[in-house]
Write a structure and sequence with these properties.
single chain, alpha+beta, Lipocalin, twelve-stranded antiparallel β-sheet
Length: 198
């Protein structure tokens, strides 16, 4: 009887440990961008080599890491960008990005990739290598390599996710304004300063 009781207690303890471990493993860690992450782009003008900087964009969404798989959609409302020149902004949004067309008002970066890590570090640098995402812009979806440099501390994630796009790859004409055009390549940066939550 005592042996049977001891066996049942041992079995109960093992099951309890397995349940705790299982619940920890089953929960995804998340970088919560529901409050938004600042997005900017930089383009170089030709022939004057002026810098065209787009600000005011905001990415929302959630990045989840579960069982070594990073996934999430970051959504940016393209209507929020400004280049600090009203007429140029109007041309950028209406003529080139065509934000008034159905589905063209947003850019979506989708990440769905296996990583070598099972969870975000509790503190320190998080710089996953060979990270990539699928960017949907102007009705076209293409893979983009991502450069991720994030520092995690006190349940917060701060840093950047950056990538380059070629405007023509997304069926966008090279913008021209007041006799100045721009290069085909645009640098995009997402600035994270968001919470890491279980």
């Amino acid at each position: 009887m005592q042996l049977e009781y001891g066996f049942k207690m041992a079995l109960l303890k093992i099951l309890s440990v397995l349940l705790v471990v299982g619940s920890v493993v089953a929960h995804a860690q998340k970088i919560d961008l529901s409050t938004g992450a600042k997005v900017e782009f930089d383009a170089v003008g030709k022939p004057a080599m002026i810098n065209i900087k787009g600000t005011g964009g905001k990415a929302t969404g959630v990045l989840s890491l579960l069982e070594s798989k990073l996934s999430g959609d970051l959504v940016v409302n393209l209507k929020e960008f400004t280049t600090d020149m009203d007429l140029r902004d109007e041309h950028m949004k209406e003529k080139y990005l065509e934000v008034n067309k159905s589905g063209f008002d947003k850019a979506i970066l989708k990440i769905d990739q296996k990583l070598e890590m099972a969870s975000f570090p509790s503190s320190g640098a998080w710089e996953p290598k060979l990270l990539k995402g699928m960017l949907t812009l102007h009705g076209v979806t293409k893979e983009v390599p991502l450069n991720c440099k994030i520092s995690i501390k006190d349940s917060g994630a701060a840093g950047t996710v950056s990538f380059k796009i070629k405007v023509k790859d997304y069926n966008i004409d090279i913008p021209e304004f007041a006799g100045i055009t721009m290069t085909n390549e645009v640098d995009v940066k997402v600035f994270l300063n968001n919470k890491v939550v279980p």
